[in-house]
Amino acid sequence: MVVGAGGHSELMHVLRRWGSVTAELFLGAACPGCEAPGPGLCPACRVRLDEPEPRQVRPTPCPAGFPTTYAGGPYDELVRRLISAHKERQAWLLTGVLGDRLARSVGALLAGRSAAETVFLVPIPSSPAAVRSRGRDSTAALTRRAVRRLGIGRDRPMIMKPLLRPTRRLADQSALDENERRQNLAGAYAVRRLGGRQPPDGAAIIVDDLVTTGSSLTEARRALTSAGVPVLGAAVIAATVRRYRPGADAQVSEADAIR
Ligand SMILES: [Zn+2]
């Protein structure tokens, strides 16, 4: 068989992809965090993922209307690898550990508030095209996991309400600077009504995997509040940081966030 240069590299790409997918599915060849041999996330990476205390973060500069936001820790190399594997390489086994870290951020946001208060988690919506190509909405999957984790031991179950939908196709945020991101996201989300015309009882907590410039969370908050849905705040797995010092405000900077 004669294969042209383009066809050959495409074939190699497919084979490599197959190799990686089958390895993850059937062998769990290496830790997705550090590539140590063995099935799934290794104990050392698990400890590192669970180590940071969630705390409040603010992007610099902070967009007007940015919600009170808690992050589970810095967007370090380990978290970058795990979120990328979960989102881009369908490493669904990571939903548990990443969703648990998201749950801790939500817990930090809720600390000191009445357990009887009705709150619900609203995931930032992924584009329909991304969901089609990845086979699943990774943010929604992490949110469902966090809901289960947070519901344990509560009188009132935590619930997810996917109230937001994208209003149009968005440009890839990773290639945009701060101003461009804000423009790209202006009016990007609309609120869908689930089971009735009235806004739901209770307050929303917006959830996402990352906070970078804060544009997505700010726009989500704007869409929800303008539809009459109160927003308590936001929670994310990680904040992209220049400096992440326990006890100090995080400095959130540009990063290779991908939506
Ligand atoms: Zn590892």
From TrEMBL:
<comment type="similarity">
    <text>Belongs to the ComF/GntX family.</text>
</comment>
<dbReference type="InterPro" id="IPR000836">
    <property type="entry name" value="PRTase_dom"/>
</dbReference>
<protein>
    <submittedName>
        <fullName>ComF family protein</fullName>
    </submittedName>
</protein>
<dbReference type="InterPro" id="IPR029057">
    <property type="entry name" value="PRTase-like"/>
</dbReference>
<dbReference type="InterPro" id="IPR051910">
    <property type="entry name" value="ComF/GntX_DNA_util-trans"/>
</dbReference>
